[in-house]
Amino acid sequence: MAQKLVKGRASLELRALGRTVLGWRHIRNWSLAELGELVGYSTATISEISRAVIRPSPSDVLRIGAACHAPEDEIELCIRVAQRANDPLMWDRINGDAWARLTWTPWDVMAEANELLIIASEVVPELFRISTYHEALCQAGAATTGLNLDQQQSVQARLDMDAKEAARPGNHGPLHVRLLVTEAVLTDNVGGARTMIEQLGHLEDLTERTSFEFGVVDSSAGPYFGMNQSFTVMRFRAPRFDDVVLTRTLHDGDVWLESAVERAPYERALLALNDVVRSRQDSSHWLSRASLALQ
């Protein structure tokens, strides 16, 4: 039977487990209620597993996987993850860590977040790119996958979400974004002048939204802690979800930092950036000037 969270916290891996296991129902086109009836659980219990309010036991994983006719290798992997969730440190000590893991995307985690603090020192973040800008990055080898416009629009739709929409079941609520970019990001000629004008125009449109805060780091401010780092801090309304930091590089891929010790340097970098970022109004004017300079 499903179990309580360890120390009341749901790790990224545990949240991925819930999404994967409950995602198997789509193989059979079942609703949560239909799946619950087949495996003998209430709709509320199935919903809580999917939202990582509780964690599935290995027997839950096996029962749901068998009912949905999920791939055997996925069932086996998820059983391991469910076993590991009891005591990850002890599990790794006994079994080692050289085994396949569940994966998740930034889009998966952003869908649950209520605040994003994005620091961009190299390129415009994927969440706010236009297609031609992203295609130019791919051609230059600075991006490797296509732009997921559906996921992008889904996250952006939560900016300025009204109270009625936020109250709907299963909704993670409104999203607030603070995007800080270096001047180099806005003046780099990615894809040529026309592409950059369109990209900067898109950012200008976003600055009109009250839940989107845009700031340009002042290049004349001199060195500062965390300089030349790009990262995203994601914060969550649900108390069972701890803040996480995402760093991303072309060669190393996504690196997720969950512990307070791992996150601490990035939290300090955010504080340091407050001293070197232009005001909201000055940043908006700087963005407009950068666009005009390309015309």
List the helices and strands and how they pair.
Blueprint: H1 12-23, H2 32-39, H3 43-50, H4 58-68, H5 72-84, H6 88-95, H7 106-110, E1 115-120, H8 131-139, H9 149-156, H10 163-166, E2 176-182, H11 183-187, H12 193-206, E3 212-217, E4 231-235, E5 244-249, E6 253-257, H13 260-273, H14 280-293
Parallel strand pairs: 1-2, 2-3
Antiparallel strand pairs: 1-4, 4-5, 5-6
Helix pairs in contact: 1-5, 2-3, 4-5, 12-14
- Give me the oligomer status: single chain
Helix content: 40-55%
Trace the largest sheet across and list its strands.
Answer: 3-2-1-4-5-6
The profile of the biggest β sheet is: 6 strands, mixed
End-to-end CA span = 63 Å
CATH hierarchy: architecture of the largest domain: 2-Layer Sandwich
The fold-level CATH name of the largest domain is Endonuclease, Chain A
Element-by-element helix/strand order: HHHHHHHEHHHEHHEEEEHH
The share of residues in extended strands comes to 5-15%
Low-confidence stretches: none
Structure commentary:
By secondary structure, this protein is of the alpha/beta class. The chain has helices at 12-23, 32-39, 43-50, 58-68, 72-84, 88-95, 106-110, 131-139, 149-156, 163-166, 183-187, 193-206, 260-273, 280-293, and strands at residues 115-120, 176-182, 212-217, 231-235, 244-249, 253-257. The termini are far apart.
Task: Describe what is shown at a glance.
This protein has 295 residues and is of the alpha/beta class. It is 45% helix and 12% strand.
Features:
Endonuclease, Chain A; 434 Repressor (Amino-terminal Domain); alpha/beta; 6 strands; 6-stranded mixed beta sheet; 12% strand; single chain
